[in-house]
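Write out this protein's structure.
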Amino acid sequence: MKTTFKCILLLTAFIICGIVGVNSQTINYQASSNQQTSYNIFSKNAKINNGFWTASIEKNEIGLLLTNQAGSRNPGFVITTSFPKNIFTPIAGGNGYEIIRESGTLSLMGTFSETEGSGKFTFTSNEQFIAFLERNRIDTNVEDIYLFKAFLGNLNKDFVNGIKERGYDSTLKELTKLTTHGATLNYIDELAAAGYKGLELNMISKFAIHDITIEYIQELSKAGYSKMDPNMLKKFAIHDIRIDYIKELNALGYGNLSPEMLKKFAVHQISPKYIKGLSSVGFDNLDSEMLKKFKVHNISATYIKSLQDLNLERLSAQTIKKAKVHNVSAAYVKNARSNGYVYTSLSDYIRLKIRGEG
């Protein structure tokens, strides 16, 4: 997850003004892929279990910012996250609200208006849940942040047991990554059915982080990219390789590219518009490797057209690439000609430029 995520702080007037109308029993909430949480830990000595909070609301969702030093330019930590309004319950006999989950309780004490709130918070781990983890050989002697992440991701006994039933020996860090990023047991099962059974938990978390859905995997398979290496599939998602992009490339003569080459096309932003531009100046049959080199060296249709207007011979793709590499422009050729260097071949001007003449 990107640590620069800007959380939209939301809090509803329903919670602020009349949460007494909400049933006070605990409402468990399964973390989903659209719940965004950011952890910025600036000091290893910072205590995550208490500090200050601010909140604001809109509709049915709460945004919270948690830190150990309100208003400080040098906080030990800043955590931003969001929750649905209906998991908050009023603290009995207190001025505040809390979220109670299997892994612990987050209590927010402070003041509220119709649109925002602020105050102090405390987080208390559930000792019974910690004991459950220990019985399942999951080490809880870790940094406090992982116990807090377990809470924020709503890690629970069913999930821990489900991971174990699927043949995994997990750590608390791995489990919190899964739940924080919305990798549910159902998602893991669907990945297995799609050909990714036994995928490492860390990779499953990365799949969830980059929003690799089962539908995306199925669409890629239909487009000719089935049973892809997990790391390559992750790179496809990182570089936003969509099915429409694959289809457009196919229509332009670049079908059946290897996964590696398709990834390079995306990395270097080789768009259908760029390919069509090259085609308009006579370069419509470039092999994929040369096309990639053209884009790497920023060889545009305008650059090619400027060379063509000089009536030079043998303007091959390889020669144009060399010309661009050595910064041989139409302006350079015109200046060289005015200085008496009149050639018909672009290669001659390339050699002239290499010699530092012209």
